[in-house]
Amino acid sequence: MKGLSLTLTALLSVWCLSTGLAQSSEEALKPITRTYALKNVTIVTKPGQTILNGTVVVKDGLILNAGQNVSIPADAKIIPADSMFVYAGFIDALSNAGIPKPEVRPATGGTGGGGQRPTGVNPGTPPNDLAGIQPELRARDLIKPADKSIEDLRKLGFTNAQVSPIGKMLPGSSALISLGGTAADNMILKDNFAMISQLVGAQGVYPNTIMAVMSKFRELYKQAEQAKAHEKMYAANPAGMVRPEVDRSLQAFYPVLDKQRPICFVAPDLKSVYRVLAMQQELNFPLILGGLLQAWTLADQLKAKNIPIILSLDLPKMEKKEPAKKDSTAAKDPEMERLEKRRADEMKLYETQAAVFAGKGINFGFSTLNAKTADIREALRRMVKAGLKEDQALAALTTTPAAMFGVAQSLGTVEKGKIANLVVSKKSYFDEKSQIRYVFVDGNLYEFEAEAPAAKPGTAGAGKGAAPSDLSKFIGKWSYSIDAGDQVYKGVISLIDEGGKLGGSWTGSDGQSKPLSNPSLKGSELTFSSSVNMGQDIPLDFNITFDGAKFSGKVKAGDFGVFPVEGSKEPRD
Amino acid sequence: MKIKFLSIFLLVFGGVTLFGQVAKPSKGTYALTNASIQTVTKGLVQGTLVIQDGKITALGASAAVPSGAQVIDCKGLTLYPGLIDGGTQLGLVEIEAVDVTNDDDEVGELTPQVEALTAVNPNATAIPVTRVNGVTTALVAPTGGRFPGTASLINLVGYTPNQMYAGFRGMVMNFPTLGRSGFFGPQRSEDELKKEQEKALTRLNEIWEGAKLYAKIDSAASKNAEIKVVYNPEMAALAPVIRGQMLLMIEVNRAEDIEGAIKWVESKKIKRVVFTGVAEGWRVADKLAKAKISVITGPIVALPTRSSDRYDKAYANAGLMHKAGVNLAIRTYDSENVRNLPFSAGFAAAYGLGKEQALKAITIIPAEIFGVADKLGSLEVGKNATLFASTGDALDTRNQIKYLFIDGWQVPLDSRHIQLYNEFLKRSPGLDK
Amino acid sequence: MKQFTIITCCLLLVLGLNAQITKGSLLIKNGTVLTVTKGTLEGSDVLIENGKITKIGKGLTAPAGTKTIDATGKYIMPGIIDAHSHIALDAINEGTNPVTAEVAVGDVIDPMDISVYRALAGGTTASHAMHGSANAIGGQCQTIKHRYGTLNPNDYPMEGAPRTIKFALGENPTRVHGIGRGIMPRTRMGVEFVIRKSFTEARNYDAAWKKYNAEKATKPTALPPKYDRRLEALADVLNGNILIHCHSYRADEILMLLNVCKDFGVKKVCFQHVNEGFKVAPELAAFGASASVFADWWAYKFEVYYSTAYNAAILTKNGVVTSINSDSGDYIRHLYHEAAKTQYYGGLTDDEALALITINPAKQLGVENRIGSLEVGKEGDVAIFEGHPLSVYGIPVFAIVDGIVRFDRANDPDDMRLDVDPIKATTNFQMATGRHDHDRCMQGVQELMEELFQLKN
Fold first, then answer.
1. C45 beta partners
2. Which of 105-134 (C) contact A at CB < 8 A?
């Protein structure tokens, strides 16, 4: 089994390389200079410290100078940034950026096992990968530099991130990386920074519930202590002693046992925080709490324990609703008003968490884990609106995580000699109308277009009521991937012309090809139904919209929920 | 202690059960003397109640004991009309987890032509278990689908369904309800659920209009031999409901759905209708009262339907609806524990319905809703002798039932639960053999 | 208004990560005191100081400022104890293996479960939060006090209560593992073997540790056995440090476990549900095993078809310490009514019936010296009823835990949630109509859910 995961890792790295190569179809211009100058800008050198009408010069990946009356070298490219704001690049203190979601093992089997699991696996004694126990995995080995998530974060002003492997209770160790670059190794600023852990059970196998996860965690921890002691004794005097059993998962704990590496526990909700703290108290491991959403009542205790904190930017968000057709004559429903008030009060508590922590003088970073790219800046603005000072927010995005990761000498401020990781925005970053125009990562410039005013619906693409579709652009094989939260399901949809109507088949994660039932095409929107066997038959309803050689949409999987699906046309074979 | 216990035991089981002999119901002329008689409709009366030919023939202080009558001294006992459960799966479900013993839920959305009475097992173990608690009559209703079939009212004595049939059939309909979103993963959006509900409502209307058309053609055919009626058993089963000859029993629980059901009933101008379940009736009690739709509500001893609701809302629901002016009966909606009906009424009584009204909700009101108030639901001369004698308040666990009559048959107070008690209270052999 | 009080109250309570149990003082005046163990006292008072009952009698006075409840015309009884429930838990079944002795529901307490408040509203002040019955040997359980209002899960466990573990016999483990996955146990024979095998392994594990501890100082090459939490827990069962609470129904399987316990020297066992306990009441009594039963549940599955509502009465009359439990978020609210049914079915006396939901479950959980009756020195867990608790018309009006009023029928607002969804104002409509509510096309998933999350009875 261990051999297998090694091979898998090797395969993955090869794959990363090849995708990197394949991308360079339209070659970019070779760089002319690596020296840049931003003139007449407001430099927010660090939280609470601003230089007006300043100049920032970037050279060979570093900040050459930043301040007033700074001379500009002759080889500098002058960036049009007049009256813009310059910040140190933001650090996402906990993220999955650049890490692909693990694919589901294809085979299914068994009934009543609590989700799919490979045939022949005893759910009580699953292999470590199914159990979610892979602390030996490293983010470094998994990063895909070309992954869109890296670009997405960069667009928001993030230049660095602690990235974690994706998985269950022990997905692996994190790395602090630069959010720019073409080779994973070269993006690493701190390898093996923290052992990531979370109270997430495996699907259909042990440990399935949180209580089993907690038990297993404690057991592994103590077994690691035993194994480490055994190795040490054996190294000192092997004669007559049974040779230590080698287990890479237990070995991954050793730096934690030596207090050389913290465990970064993802604990969004209050109960998880309590549970993690209980285990920490029991086992006494160095701890970072990650992705906190609901811990405002615990601020004092966390401060007293001096635990590094990473707050979540995945704030709960109201669904945008059509303005209800309000009947102004209708009597107000007092029950509804009461419930709505409680809801709003609760929402306020989530929004105020960061201000509560900051108000108590607790330093924290921010995590984008699980947050939608489009919601992240709004989440920051909501926190600021709820009382978080802009300086405090900025500290959480720059200086605090820089210190947390031990890179304060090279990251976190706009100062001479630091790595040229910069965010340049029109207006203050926290202003609703502010737009990010440039981001520097390691001195490399990424330029973003001024955002166009939102397109009016119906002006682009084949809208509803368009002329009957030309089927030829849909016919063929399309690869799809369904993002079911913690796992991605992949397969192929084959579309054919069935007498002027679109039809065909698709392959589910059960490996079976099934016809599309009730396919219906309106404009470029296709709906169809099918089912997949995951121990039991689950009905699926697809609703996808094509856009050139890509499509995206949703699939409803019975009562399991609605998941995003996207795909692209496969080359003709 | 032992002596006291034994005496209670004798009180309960003496008289009817003879050891070593199978107790069977018997019929005759009975005079229940010195009794407190809870007539339900005419207050509490002291005196004698006479049973002849299955009917109550005399009642009160002046009632004479007919010659040859078996006299039962009911001093200290209160007579009650047999309790009526307005909604159960009694006799349809023997063991819940054993699918093959469940006959309440036929395949299909539209099966109004199937009848609960067909599948009632007269020898279901739960039937004697139920009746010894004073529940003499129960509506047995099919479940599942849109129109799962017709429910039947049965008396809990007899060896064939026909012997048990108590004179009422009603058409069960499940009103389209807002579905639930998934347990796992992201939930279905409310909009999606609403769309599904609307779709189901459209389908219901389609069925209803179809049934109307069928009933019209069928009526025409009865006058004109030229007109042929196609074989459509589903529509044929719905025709009596369309014509107002059969009660439509609409199962509906969520407040919004209850409002929807009221509107639907009004839009279809349905005259004979009752709502069943009605768990959130308290939320829309005024609207129910205004629509003058009777309700069979239950289970009473249940959880509130929403986590933000007051903890006792299920107990209080009946009382709140009654206060708003809703005419209501109580049901258990159970199969093996229909015997808890009096206690359900007791809870409703304690939490706002009041004892008098709670008793009516399991006697005369269901009898009226089912159109059998001329025979059941109260102790009155001319009505069926379906009654029992209790040591006190029949809704309270503190009292015991002493005698039981259904349709004039004196029914032995025996059931498997009691037999097991008799066998195992003092096991023989005990520890040593 | 009360809502804010609750929130402030929570803020005060969560000042520590570790439990910081708040205790109160309270004088309850002039009620009918049902002590359960020491008779009934008319027109009497109960004084609770700093969480403990300090006086019971007439005309008691309390220090100025002590909160007072006028119980004139009301009944004061010990807080009701439920020996079998699954409320306040975020996980119930680790149904992936036939033996999961290492998991503990104490790790997954949910202090925000509205069921706890609802239980209080039924006079129930403590319960035995249990692992589910999917496995022959399930997880460890937790005796909790219903300190609703705190957000700290560490405030819930009853400090110092003995450890307990869930075992399960019969249909549930054989269905989940045998029928569901083709893994032993598929039969009651297999269930016995699984338990015997686990006990034997635990005995060997324990012996290996003892051997290691004895020789480690002198033998440098000595190695400890590989740490195994499952066997650690089972060894604690064998050593009497963890009490067995065994889900069981049929007489034969009850006897089987008694025999296994005898063979492995296990002295204490409480049978849960134990619908056919009445058939082996003399054997249970002789062993000293106790029984925690339903008042009248039967026929919901085959192994409870030959049940009787007279079970509690027969067991009690045969000298078995018996309790009535809920196993349900609904029934835990009216255990007093369930106990009253034993008067209807079997004519138990008031004290016998009340013992079923107070002192007897306290004995089964090993906390009878602290709760379960109204006696000086015991903890201030009290339920106050309008009307006698054994009457169907009895209504709980106060529930008091450690001298603190946690339920006040007259003054609590309707909405007592601690767990408020920040996104949705309206809470989901949920109605437990049992089997009749099952969505046919999702039956597989329903069963799966039950199997993994809710398999209880």
1. C57
2. 105, 107-108, 110-112
**Per-domain residue ranges for chain B?**
83-376
**B184 contact A CB<8A:** yes
Six-digit token pair at A252? 């991954």
Site from B178, B188, B192 to mutate, A interface, most A CB atoms within 10 angstroms: B188
Q: In which residue are the tokens 């692909």 written?
A: A100
The model's pTM is 0.88
- Label each residue of chain C as H, E or C: CHHHHHHHHHHHHCCCCCCCCCCCCEEEEEEEEECCCCCEEEEEEEEEECCEEEEEECCCCCCCCCEEEECCCEEEEECEEEEEECCCECCCCCCCCCECCCCEHHHHECCCCHHHHHHHCCCEEEEEECCCCCCCEEEEEEEEECCECECCHHHCECCCCCEEEEEECCHHHHHHHHHHHCCCCCCHHHHHHHHHHHHHHHHHHHHHHHHHHHHCCCCCCCCCCCCCHHHHHHHHHHCCCEEEEEEECCHHHHHHHHHHHHHHCCCCEEEEECCCHHHHHHHHHHHCCEEEECCCCCCCCHHHCCCCCCHHHHHHHCCCCEEECCCCCCHHHCHHHHHHHHHHCCCCCHHHHHHCCCHHHHHHCCCCCCCCCCCCCCECCEEEEECCCCCCCCEEEEEEECCEEEEECCCCCCCCCCCCCCCCCCCCCCCCCHHHHCCHHHHHHHHHHHHHHHCCC
Taking only the tens place, the pLDDT of each residue in B221-248 is: 999 999 999 999 999 999 999 999 999 9
Lowest mean pLDDT among A324-338, A407-421, C66-80: A324-338
B126, B303, B335: residue with CB nearest C330: B303
Helix (H) / strand (E) element for B56: namely strand B55-60
Q: Token pair of A201, please?
A: 């059970």
| Structure confidence by residue, pLDDT tens digits, C110-135 | 999 999 999 999 999 999 999 999 99
The secondary structure of residue A515, as a DSSP letter, is: E
Question: Does the CB of C2 have a partner CB in chain B at under 8 Å?
Answer: no
Per-residue pLDDT tens over the stretch C53-97: 999 999 999 999 999 999 999 999 999 999 999 999 999 999 999
Chain A contact present for B231, CB below 8 A: no
Answer whether residue A467 shows pLDDT above 50: no
CA distance B90 to B117: 11
Task: Give the list of residues 6+ apart from residue C200 with CB closer than 8 angstroms, or none.
Answer: none
> How wide is the angle at C-alpha C26 spanned by C-alphas C25 and C30, nearest 5°?
155
Of C35, C81, C156, which Cα lies nearest the Cα of C325?
C81
Three-state SS at A393 = helix
How many CB atoms neighbour CB A291 within 10 A?
27
CATH match of B83-376 with 3.20.20.140: yes
Residue of A nearest to B182 (CA): A559
By Cβ distance, the residue of B307, B418, B431 closest to C427 is: B307
Task: Give the separation between CA B257 and CA B175, rounded to whole angstroms.
Answer: 8
Q: Which of A319, A342, A561 sits opposite B185 (nearest CB)?
A: A561
Is the Cβ of A125 closer than 8 Å to some Cβ of chain C? yes
Q: Is B183 on the interface with A (CB under 8 A)?
A: yes
Contact state of B427 with C415 under an 8 Å Cβ cutoff: no
pLDDT of residue A450 exceeding 90, the answer is no
Q: Taking CB atoms and an 8 Å cutoff, what residues of chain C touch A275?
A: 107-108, 153
B343/C contact by beta carbon, under 8 A: yes
A219/C contact by beta carbon, under 8 A: yes
Q: Is the pLDDT of residue C450 over 50?
A: no
Q: Which chain B residue's Cα is nearest to A336?
A: B308
Q: Which residue in chain C has the smallest CA separation from B349?
A: C393
Residue B2: closest C-alpha in chain C: C317
